[in-house]
Design a protein that fits this description.
Number of domains: 2
Radius of gyration: 20 Å
Helix content: 55-70%
Distance between the termini: 27 Å
Structural class: mainly alpha
Number of strands: 0
Largest sheet: none
């Protein structure tokens, strides 16, 4: 079996493919879209992608954007190289402390999430901020994976909006049920997502912190990790059940 590419290898492939295509060479459109999607579904990597890659899923649109201000081929090559520096340097030197990015699978599974859950419990003691970020980024990625497999489009929605799309796709919306117990449990899913999204903004390090922000403690991190992992497993198990 062919070994799966690392994200660093994928970044080089994406960069080199774009350089080739934007200088009248060739790149397969399906390969471009697959590589692009691999990066976009992970927030830590998405924000380091070149803007043109985040914006366009069509290679011709990328080429038109780049050659508009960079006509000579040498300028185009330099522009694309420079645009990938942030992503590639992060993958080479900056990701060692983020278990979500290190050895991340192409597709999340119950086993992988359980493994992250265990690691995040240990990390929560020494690095509550990082544990919160990793767990909630994982939750974000799981929802995007589900939407991809359900062929549901999404953009830069926040966690609650992504979860609402997932709930509709998997028939988890409380309004679909008449039994009061199920309605309350499924409604609780929305409450959890709103809560952990707020925790991410207030305590996590995903979106930066103000100097006066409260510093998360281990118990806050464990709460976020446990909620995010529990809901992620439930979502994946529901998706698998739907496929049967």
């Amino acid at each position: 079996m062919e070994e799966e590419q690392s994200f660093l290898d994928k970044a080089h492939s994406l960069r080199d493919g774009l350089i080739s295509f934007c200088t009248d060479g060739d790149m397969d459109i399906n390969n471009y879209r697959r590589l692009r999607q691999d990066f976009i579904r992970l927030e830590e990597l998405k924000k380091r992608l070149p803007v043109v890659v985040r914006r366009y899923d069509d290679l011709k649109a990328v080429r038109n954007f780049i050659r508009h201000g960079h006509f000579p081929y040498a300028e185009r090559r330099a522009y694309i190289y420079d645009d990938f520096v942030s992503l590639i340097e992060y993958l080479e030197f900056g990701q060692a402390q983020n278990p979500l990015v290190t050895n991340i699978p192409t597709r999340f599974t119950n086993e992988w999430i359980n493994d992250l859950w265990i690691k995040s419990h240990s990390r929560a003691v020494e690095d509550p901020d990082g544990a919160i970020t990793s767990a909630l980024s994982m939750f974000d990625s799981v929802m995007k994976q589900v939407l991809d497999e359900c062929c549901v489009e999404y953009g830069d929605e926040d966690l609650p909006k992504l979860y609402d799309k997932v709930a509709k796709c998997l028939n988890l919306s409380p309004s679909n049920y008449t039994d009061d117990s199920f309605k309350k449990i499924l409604g609780g899913g929305y409450t959890i997502v709103f809560g952990i999204a707020n925790l991410r903004n207030q305590l996590g390090d995903a979106h930066g912190k103000k100097s006066i922000a409260a510093k998360p403690k281990t118990r806050h991190a464990l709460l976020a990790v446990n909620l995010a992992c529990t809901l992620s497993l439930f979502i994946l198990q529901t998706l698998e059940q739907k496929k049967r």
